[in-house]
Amino acid sequence: MAELLKKPVHHPLAEGVEIIQDFKPSDVDLEYTGIKVIDLKAAATFSESTNDYEACVVALTGQIDVSDGNDKYEGLGTRDSVFEKVPTDSIYISKAHEIVITAQRDARVVICYSPCEQERATQLIPAAENSVEDRGKYSNKRHVHNILPDSHTASEKLLVVEVYTDQGNWSSYPPHKHDVDNLPHESFLEEIYYHEMDPPQGFVFQRVYTDDKSLDETMAVEHSDVVIVPKGYHPVAVPDGYNGYYLNVMAGPQKVWKFHNQKDHEWIIDRK
């Protein structure tokens, strides 16, 4: 198994609560990014302290209530499958809070993490506030929901985005990277990909590699897998017959997304 590829664990935590993926930064040799994916049966509850992390709770599917230890936000979630391709509700919760999530109906929840320095106000990010865009052309098309882009002021370091790539298309392409702290030319952001497939027995290919090939891994990625991107380029290819979805978690010393395209392949952007 590739070192950067993490398979779902399906670990029962409590009645009606199952952990699918669970990584804090130190678990995967990162400094800034972590992720947890949880399945909740209707009426089940999951709780944890944010400690020194800021978190973005994404109601991936189903419907949930979320408390930050002070206020409660009810009825979050807009879809039963990510492949409905409609934005969903999320909530930003800072350090030193207690997160309590209760499912109104069966739900899958993603919690995105990054260490933070200052406590901030909790902020609801409703589906209607996601900016939606289409990127690319030819077989490099993808559909994007920006949940927590670098322009959003709620978080200190976290960026969160959903990306849909239809069958036969490429994504995160041409290959780009953001692993050098050299603003305004390039920012340093670690990244985690959480993947889903439609139909779920499908797979995509993802390559993570650096210019000197000291890191070079190509992975067959399946439903509910996570791919860790500590550095380097990280394109995704989706085979015929299947559609791909991924949720990106990014964070670094500065909340700026400024990437660098691999020069050998940058020409495809301007082709007629």
Automatic annotation (TrEMBL):
Alphabetically sorted, this entry's keywords are:
Isomerase
Give the EC number: 5.3.1.30
The yes or no answer to whether the keyword Acetylation is present is: no
Q: Does the keyword ATP-binding apply?
A: no
Q: Which domain of life is it from?
A: Bacteria
Q: Name one GO molecular function term.
A: isomerase activity
Pfam name, any one: KduI
Its recorded name reads: 5-deoxy-glucuronate isomerase
The top EC class, named as a word, is isomerase
